């Protein structure tokens, strides 16, 4: 991880250590399995019925945080194969509702997303319950 990314993570209150996790329940394998299952669900039910964009976004952000990475909206759009303007609308709603925080560095045109503490705790609670 680059120094700039670590500095930004520290400014945002995120763990900056490589492989840092947000609570014991957020294990990388669990997150990868949840993401894979969401993809299987969508392939069975069809994208219109099987996709849950906000959940998939939360899982991707959790996985990135678990791996000590920041995720830009551009990266998230590519990973989820989502239309960038649709993703931006969803992310703005999620930010308004307090699920994520969107930020931008002065010298960077990228917009980054991170989980709020409430989302981290809710996801940790979810994984503890399954």
TrEMBL record:
Record lineage: Bacteria, Pseudomonadati, Pseudomonadota, Alphaproteobacteria, Sphingomonadales
Gene source species: Novosphingobium umbonatum
Protein known as: MarR family transcriptional regulator
SUPFAM superfamilies associated with the record: Winged helix' DNA-binding domain (SSF46785)
Domain of life of the organism encoding this protein: Bacteria
